[in-house]
Amino acid sequence: MFPPVFTTLNQPELQAFVGADPVRMYDFGTAPQSVERPYITFTSVSNVPHEQISGAPCSDADVVQIDMYADSREQVRAMARVVRQILDSAGWSNRLNLQMYEPDTGLFRISMDCDFITDNLQ
User: Fold this and answer.
1) Which residues touch 98 (CB under 8 Å, ≥6 apart)?
2) pTM
3) Which residues have CB under 8 Å from 74's CB, separation 6+?
4) Are 41 and 21 within 8 A, CB to CB?
């Protein structure tokens, strides 16, 4: 129900963009108003437990939206490539769902969805 987004993404190659201490990667609703850029936010979009007749669900299928923000198109695209490489290496299915410039904030944004399947029995 709560997939390992932070622990999956918190890798040195991504820390080159979002820092290491502190890491500028935030669960939904926790990014500070004036956060240094670039940064990442993530939020669960859906959760489907794998129901079974013999007991509680043994696993969950979660879709998580990962949003990357940066001051330039080049920087946000570079960060998105690294996020994708990390997710691919970890075996998590992912896809690009949005690229945009936000005129109100002056930030470039790329949004990806990632499918996490997590074991509830551990």
Assistant:
1) 109, 110, 111
2) 0.91
3) none
4) no
| 12-68: pLDDT as tens digits | 999 999 999 999 999 999 999 899 999 999 999 998 887 788 888 777 889 999 999
Count other C-beta atoms under 10 Å from residue 56's C-beta.
Answer: 9
Write out the H or E segment, with its range, that includes residue 50: none
Residue 23, helix vs strand vs coil: coil
Q: Rg of the chain's alpha carbons, rounded to an integer?
A: 15
- DSSP-derived 3-state class of residue 91: coil
CA pair distance 19, 14, nearest whole angstrom? 8
- Measure Cα distances from 30 to 26, 33, 74, 110, 112 in Å: 6, 9, 25, 19, 19
Tokens (6 digits) for 22? 């502190």
Six-digit token string for 71: 């001051």
What single DSSP character describes residue 84?
Answer: H
Compute the distance between CA of residue 20 and CA of residue 42 in angstroms, rounded to an integer: 17
Query: Which two three-digit tokens encode residue 80?
Result: 């998105």
